[in-house]
Amino acid sequence: MGVGLSSGTGRPGRHLPRREDPIGSLTGGLYERLRLRPGLGGSIRGRFGRTDGLTFAATVEQAATGLSRRGLCLGDVVGVLAPVSPDRFLASYTVMAVGGRALTVLPESDPDTQCAALAETDARLLLVSEDLAARGLELAERSRVRQIITFGSALGTTPFNELLLPSPDGNGYSPARGLFDNGLLGYESTGDGILTTLYTHHDLLARFAELRQVLDLTPDDIVAVDRRGDEATRMALAALALWTGACVVAGEGCPPPEGRGVTVECAPDPVRVGAPHKAG
């Protein structure tokens, strides 16, 4: 039986922030939390490797700093074109960490719909997975996108790793905290054009809180996220798993850690399918 998540922002006062809640974005405060609790662990896995939670959180912070240096402002829209994978989560969390709005450009959409979504939201920057770099360049030709950042390397694009370089002027900028104009943008094609939906930080935090209450995650959980379900819930679930110190298995064809089984999955609503496996 799935989790019955409420749509929209939820009832006022229902999801009051707690001390351990994200601040400003779904990963706001995650790095400090994991650094101060080294035993908490946690990781995110894709088909091509594993990243521990602390490194992932630090990368979000560094990349958000890099986007700020490139002129990203509060409320700016950035397209994210990638399959469900660690790259997609890293890109969206980074955009939200610096106060932007992440537009999930669905790989399964046709190019005309993808281009219309970018135009409707006035996106000027696109983060893409390496395998979709050619599609990203095509979309830039047909939209107002002026810069493409790729996870990997592709001619005509900027490598994501450049966002992680130290500030050339020594500026000690830190990603914004307590800024709630960020969020996640979804879209659908209708007979009248593109309909976009904004899930604000408050919306995402409400989902985060509901999932925390219903799933009761522990550091021993294995949380699988794939194309099932909606993007806002997927982003909240992965963030909750990282905050808890659980393992996130992201995308199709990504196996759980050896000898372990998935305990929570999207079906399409998040649902517990097994008890946490306690080592030893």
Give an overview in words:
The strands form 2 sheets. Strands 7-6-5-3-4-8-9 form a 7-stranded mixed beta sheet. A 6-stranded mixed beta sheet has the order 2-1-11-10-12-13. With about 280 residues, the protein is an alpha/beta fold. A hairpin with a 2-residue loop joins strand 1 and strand 2. The protein is built from 7 helices and 13 strands. Helix 1 packs antiparallel against helix 2 and helix 6 (about 200-215) packs across helix 7 (about 230-245). It is globular.
Number of strands: 13
Order of helices and strands: HEEHEHEHEHEEEEHEHEEE
The chain-level mean pLDDT equals 89
Judging from the principal axes of the Cα atoms, what is the shape?
globular
> What level of helicity do the residues show?
25-40%
Please give the order of strands in the largest beta sheet. Answer: 7-6-5-3-4-8-9
Our measurement of the CA-to-CA distance between the termini, rounded to an integer number of angstroms, reads: 30 Å
Uncertain runs: 1-17
Biggest sheet statistics: 7 strands, mixed
Secondary structure category: alpha/beta
Cα-atom radius of gyration: 18 Å
Q: Which percent band covers the strand fraction?
A: 15-25%
- How many helices? The count is 7
